[in-house]
């Protein structure tokens, strides 16, 4: 979280410099997008809460590879894939192996599909971490 605040602060500073230098509207719009704080996204907190209460963080870290891939790597791999939420929710529930190597992911059969989808939406927000 500390890293996100640091990146957010840098983004705000960069945006202010662009605005002060009279950047055109497209650079201003891009700067505004860079400032967007993902923790304010409606899918962030519900997913984070579910992930925090689960055993997911035993194997997955946000920005670094652990036993399994980082959430950021997963988010980048499935960025723009229309079926990513459904696919990842299914993987969270059923477990599996082979996509990221031979280490199997523990299944979570008692997890509700709706909760697994919230977790997947949260993970997909982390592509820039």
What would your notes on this structure say?
- It is built from 6 helices and no strands.
- Helix 1 runs antiparallel to helix 2, helix 3 crosses helix 6 and helix 5 crosses helix 6.
- The chain folds into 2 domains: 36 residues; 91 residues, Cytochrome Bc1 Complex, Chain D, domain 2 (Orthogonal Bundle), CATH 1.10.760.10.
- 54% of the residues lie in helices and 0% in strands.
- It has 129 residues and is mainly α.
Which tags fit this structure?
129 residues; Cytochrome Bc1 Complex, Chain D, domain 2; globular; disordered N terminus; mainly alpha
Give helix % range: 40-55%
User: How many individual helices?
Assistant: 6
Radius of gyration: 17 Å
The CA-CA distance between the termini, in Å, is 10 Å
CATH homologous superfamily heading of the largest domain: Cytochrome c-like domain
Largest sheet: none
Count of folded domains: 2
Gross morphology is globular
Q: How large a portion of the residues is in β-strands, by DSSP E?
A: under 5%
Order of helical and strand elements: HHHHHH
Mean pLDDT: 82
| DSSP strand count | 0
Q: Do you know the CATH architecture of the largest domain?
A: Orthogonal Bundle
Structural class by helix and strand composition: mainly alpha
